[in-house]
């Protein structure tokens, strides 16, 4: 199945007219070399609402459902939210990984371990440079889980949502919806070595309360620590599910939060 999915440049090409229809432009925000090939990285802004939303996908190249679900959301759903929100969208953070359908980016490293670190890579630098003057109410970070894939889907809440009972209630509502689709939710007390509350991993707002956030080098944690994002929600779908199911869940997750946005 993976061999039949579109590559990076093909997916970007399909998104360009989508953003044009939304009165927006998919803009090159930087580039880097992979071997001898110059690889551009793209982002777009859309909408004129008061709440600032960041959506990112494709940090890990083998997690194909996230960028593909985002593409479907952009084609069919984003237009309904343009008056309520202003969106910043980075559809694929790891172009070479997405093209090769492998986890790692340039330097053959996991990019989501190097955001905010001195020894980071071009993709990390380009993304952080682009976002450095932004302030987001909510960052929706789209991922899939390959390590815990047989255990089910789960959610990270980082920043202002990590101790908010109302946000937890909404997270559980979405996880319950996943269960109703016949898809497992990972409710283990620890996921990837971190404390979990029935499928939600809370990560505190700052390094003083949770020093592990800065050490992890994840994009979401980095943006919270830098004061760029107030809150990050990361959905991890299980790659043990069918691609169709993962696409459905990821797209539904974006719509869910935009329809119930709080805080």
The gist of it:
This protein is an alpha/beta fold and 263 residues long. It has helices at residues 8-21, 65-76, 95-100, 122-131, 165-180, 212-216, 219-225, 243-259, and strands at residues 27-34, 37-46, 51-56, 85-90, 138-145, 154-159, 190-191, 194-195, 200-203, 231-238. The radius of gyration is 17 Å and the shape is globular.
Explain the overall architecture.
The N and C termini lie far apart (40 Å). Helix content is 33%, strand content 23%. It has helices spanning 8-21, 65-76, 95-100, 122-131, 165-180, 212-216, 219-225, 243-259, and strands at residues 27-34, 37-46, 51-56, 85-90, 138-145, 154-159, 190-191, 194-195, 200-203, 231-238. The protein has one domain: 3-Layer(aba) Sandwich (Aminopeptidase). The chain has 263 residues and is an alpha/beta fold. The strands form 2 sheets. It has an 8-stranded mixed sheet, sandwiched between helices. Residues 51-148 form the Succinylglutamate desuccinylase/Aspartoacylase catalytic domain. One of its GO terms (molecular function) is metal ion binding.
């Amino acid at each position: 199945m993976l061999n039949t999915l579109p590559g990076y440049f093909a997916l970007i090409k399909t998104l360009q007219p989508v953003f044009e229809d939304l009165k927006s432009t998919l803009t090159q925000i930087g580039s880097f070399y992979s071997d001898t090939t110059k690889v551009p990285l793209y982002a777009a802004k859309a909408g004129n609402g008061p709440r600032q939303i960041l959506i990112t996908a494709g940090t890990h190249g083998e997690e194909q459902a996230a960028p593909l679900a985002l593409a479907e959301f952009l084609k069919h759903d984003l237009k309904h939210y343009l008056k309520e929100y202003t969106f910043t969208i980075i559809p694929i953070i790891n172009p070479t990984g997405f093209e090769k359908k492998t986890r790692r980016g340039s330097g053959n490293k996991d990019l989501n371990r190097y955001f905010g670190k001195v020894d980071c890579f071009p993709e990390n630098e380009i993304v952080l440079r682009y976002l450095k003057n932004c302030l987001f109410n909510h960052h929706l970070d789209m991922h899939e889980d390959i390590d815990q894939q047989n255990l089910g889907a789960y959610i990270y809440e980082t920043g202002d949502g990590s101790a908010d009972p109302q946000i937890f209630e909404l997270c559980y509502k979405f996880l319950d919806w996943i269960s109703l689709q016949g898809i497992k939710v990972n409710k283990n007390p620890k996921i990837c070595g971190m404390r979990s509350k029935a499928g939600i991993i809370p990560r505190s707002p700052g390094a003083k309360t949770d020093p592990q956030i800065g050490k992890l080098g994840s994009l979401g944690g980095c943006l919270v620590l830098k004061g760029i994002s107030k809150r990050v929600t990361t959905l991890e779908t299980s790659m043990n599910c069918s691609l169709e199911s993962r696409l459905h869940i990821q797209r539904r997750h974006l719509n869910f939060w935009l329809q119930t946005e709080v805080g």
